[in-house]
Give the backbone structure.
Amino acid sequence: MSATGRHRFAMYWAAGCGGCDISVLNLNEAILDVADAFDIVFWPAVMDAKYADVQAMPDGSIDLTLFSGGIRNSENAEMARLLRRKSAILVAFGSCANEGCIPGLANLSTVADMLDIVYEGPTMDNPDHIRPGSRTIVPEGELHLPALGTLLRTLDQVVDVDYRIPGCPPETERIAEVVGLLTAALEGKAELPPRGSVVGAGHSTVCDQCQRERHVKRITQFSRLQALPSLDPALCLLEQGIPCNGSATRDGCGAKCPLAGAPCIGCYGPADGVVDFGSRLLSAFASVVDATEPDEIDRILDGLPDPVGQFYRFSLAGSLLRGARAVRTVPASAGAPR
């Protein structure tokens, strides 16, 4: 607790898009409740902050830290370890920190391949084949560029995590619930959930939240929404041949996408008991394919235009696979985060 008598709050943005910070700011007036309960001591997205300020804080002195984004480079890893030491409660906030999310799909490519795409790709004019260096000298001194790791990692693959809030990004109303619960617990008015718990989400699946009618699913063809002449507004999307990930995805979002006529894409991560999201979803899809002959089964499954994106869009880095075999077997480059 700070000298003002308020608890100390921090939020950090690693390898991610920044949407998690926006989802917290979307608390609107409720952000004032956070300001009443906490002194914000570190939040680079909304205030001037220096890493040296965090390093100078006593270990464990930050009461609550929300850590968003995955661990892609040495700076991300260094900050994860620093904030773990300084924080009493460290929360993996959002899909990137928990599963790797969209940045985790880069685990299908080596660092060399990614740099080739960025610096030698069709949209880049780079006749001198310039690549970023690891260090450069400027009048103020020497600058260092963080080293890219072989794989993007989830936060819990680098440090211990106390709680997890899923979502891409987490729904704002669920954030308010969690911050309220943790604040009450810090003030002795409530009990903290068991360490390691998923908070700000449910314990079942999006299908259980979805109000669409469900019958016996037998799929003879997978289709994209734009390929269908019309869509039944009341019937389960999967029964209409739309690949919907609700059967493997944790509830807590309110099933907003299916209710709006769009398939669940899995942004709230695996439901309770699901060890590997992609494996569970593949099993669910295979179980409804209305075919017995291998050629016919292949034809139906070929209707999924992007299997990796369908099954591991959000979860590749945190899955049993973690990435392509060719990437996982590449030795880490010198200085890469470990």
Strands lie at 7-13, 38-42, 62-68, 71-73, 87-93, 135-138, 141-144, 148-153, 163-165.
